[in-house]
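lol ok so funny story. i was supposed to be doing the assay writeup but got distracted and ended up predicting the structure for this chain instead. priorities right. anyway since i did it might as well share w the group, maybe its usefull for someone
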Amino acid sequence: PYEMSIDIDHPALVVVLVDQSDSMQRESGHDRNIKKAIGVADAVNTLLHNLVVACTRQDVVKDFFYVSVIGYGRTVGLRLEDPDSFQSFVPISRLAKKAVRTEERAM
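and the output, tada:
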């Protein structure tokens, strides 16, 4: 089997595909008060947060991962871009610096 360590010299690319079709506006089967799109957004944000935490060493985020988010539905396109480099993938350290907001929710 293929084995390769993920490190600064050998980063991994994480590609997330997000369904943005009309059906995502329907209520979730698990919680009738939450739309499917909200559940997916929460899952993607949790994944990105966990990647940032996994890459943090002594308060510095190391670029062990690059991330690309692609949405599909009526159209297909990048939903996460690095405007400074015009790349279709973003280093995890840049995501850590560009957090829009933090939400706290009661579960």
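The mean pLDDT is 85. The first helix runs from residue 36 to 54.
back to the writeup now i swear
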